[in-house]
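Weekly puzzle thread! Below is a chain. First person to post its structure in token form gets bragging rights.
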Amino acid sequence: MLLAARRSAVEAATDAQRQLFSLIIAAPEPIRGRFRGQKLPGMLTIATGLRVHSSWDAETTVTVTVLRSLARRARDLAREASAHEKAILGIVRSWRPDLLAQPGVGPIVAATVLCAWSHPGRIHSEAAFAMLAGVAPIPATSGQVTTRHRLNRAMHTIALSRIRYDPTTRDYVARRTIEGKTPREIKRCLKRYIARDLYRLLEHQPSPA
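Winning reply:
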């Protein structure tokens, strides 16, 4: 539930930011000029603090009012998403902290993997977990499409992080590249290995502290 709530907040915040940017481009010059040269975080800060002046015409007044509303909405939604992520981290740490020790696995990825896996024995094999993650040759069934998409995205996030930061993974990529594999083929193989290792980790219950 926390994953769904966080995802909704992040998507809504992104929409508000996109709308803010579009309206700034179309704003009257005196207002548009305040944002010139600013990146998105700066735009949000400026828009949040905008004040309406009685001497302004209707267009400028409405523009400032809407920009301020969108900026504050985006800020509040970002705070909401952050609070959900903090709660997710607490649950993952109390349930399976060993997941967070894996390279490239943060709280959102860990929670996504845990939701797909659920409990020992639900997914009967490494191959079945790989299929659910969308990294096996056999496609998932239609009833698994949503879970497969999210789990595949989690595998993709882990793979990209390891390619960028993990020396062992970087060596693997270099070796496979020399062998003639394409970047797409290498990522698919890597995600298959990641799914296998995560499945084995999940099925092995950590000893009580």
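Puzzle host: Confirmed. Bonus trivia for everyone else. Confidence is low (pLDDT under 50) at residues 139-143.
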